[in-house]
Design a protein that fits this description.
The chain is mostly beta strands and 167 residues long. Helices cover 15% and strands 48% of the residues. Strand 3 and strand 4 form a beta hairpin. The protein is globular. It starts with a helix and ends with a strand.
Length: 167
């Protein structure tokens, strides 16, 4: 049962970010070094842009809470076959030239990180972009270098995703 939940979690996260799997085996920073942003705490649902239209997926709820001063605990609650399945992971922020990125750890085998660039945060919305490039890097330093080099390159980013706060 535990393995099934992890697989569901990985598939949902991958679908969320419209990628086939982790972007990289390594995070942007070896250790979290940006304090949590309290504006990200709460329950969120995904609104995704696809072919110029937005669609809401209310069957998946992401709850972000504080794990410590630098890490978020991410609880995912997804509806599958009429039942809810829960799993959790961790995430943390990194900044590249003052631009915030979220490192989301995937526990699936072989594990790895997915990154979102945060574009805008308001009281009830988070706008972010996923990365289009699949990274073949061998260290966190190489991830940071690749992302710094492509920070202003629109082709480096894939889809825009919007999260709406659940009230």
């Amino acid at each position: 049962m535990k393995r099934n939940r992890v697989v569901v979690f990985a598939v949902v996260i991958a679908a969320l970010l419209t990628s086939c799997g982790p972007d990289a085996k390594y995070p942007i920073d070896d250790r979290p070094n940006v304090k949590v942003d309290k504006r990200l705490f709460g329950k969120w649902i995904l609104t995704e842009e696809h072919e110029g239209k937005y669609r809401v997926d209310s069957d998946i709820v992401y709850t972000l809470t504080k794990e410590n001063d630098y890490k978020y605990h991410v609880l995912l609650r997804a509806k599958k076959d009429g039942r809810y399945v829960e799993d959790s992971t961790t995430a943390y922020l990194s900044k590249i030239d003052k631009e915030p990125f979220v490192n989301i750890y995937l526990k699936d085998d072989p594990g790895g990180y997915i990154f979102l660039k945060i574009v805008k945060v308001s009281a009830d919305k988070i706008l972010a972009t996923s990365l289009a490039d699949t990274m073949t890097v061998t260290s966190a330093a190489q991830v940071r270098t690749l992302m710094t080099t492509n920070l202003k390159n629109p082709a480096f980013y894939k889809d825009t995703v919007e999260f709406s706060r659940v009230k």
